[in-house]
Amino acid sequence: MRVRVYVEGGGDAASTKSSCREGFRTLFERITSGGDTPKVIASGGRQNAFEDFRDALRDHKEEVILLLVDSERPVNTGASNPWGHLRSNPDCWKKPPKATAKQAHLMVQSMEAWLLADKEALATYYGQRFLANALPRRPNVEDIPKSDLVPALECASRGTQKGKYHKTQHGFALLKLIDPARVGRASDHADRFFGVLKQEARRGENRLP
């Protein structure tokens, strides 16, 4: 049974959507460790991701459909109840009738929190003059306000040869480098999502021909 992950990200351009797909796909390959790698659909905006996910529940009934979006703000509903968070303002998304809690997942509070979970990967990518000490030191990256995430990355990378952090130019490339184990230890929601991917990959590996 194929897994399809509808992710927020990539903007409107075909080139950035392609980079987004490739970044997440490479990360997911590291998580599933040789099992069936999920198909990644970069939907652009978060509303588009939700609508694509909802349509896929109807159009791809034989496949496992997952949604991955930024939380945009602190999550007070617990890692096991993402729909409770998405139901509140400003999203006000109603859980589709056939969707389960296992199908919705959050990057808390945005994708950049996952990048901050692996400072070694950041230092490797940016190289000399990267200011790792300028990054937040909270062990739980979900506690870092969304408003602090990008500025912290920009500050730490400003003097490097690659220049200050840019989401489409750097963010998706960094997804290919970060260690899922480190991200999972620093984020309960990421750990939950990675666990679902591993589980579904094993199922795909063991399916009958």
Would you give an account of this structure?
- By secondary structure, this protein is of the alpha/beta class.
- The protein folds into two domains: 3-110 and 187-205, no CATH class; 113-172, no CATH class.
- It is built from nine helices and four strands.
- The protein has helices at 14-32, 46-59, 82-87, 111-116, 119-126, 146-157, 167-175, 180-186, 188-205, and strands at residues 3-7, 39-42, 64-70, 104-107.
- Strands 2-1-3-4 form a four-stranded parallel beta sheet, sandwiched between helices.
- β1, α1 and β2 (39-42) form a beta-alpha-beta unit.
- α1 (14-32) runs parallel beside α7 (167-175) and α8 packs across α9.
- The longest helix is centred in the N-terminal third of the chain and has 19 residues, at 14-32.
- The radius of gyration is 17 Å and the shape is globular.
- The N and C termini lie close together (11 Å).
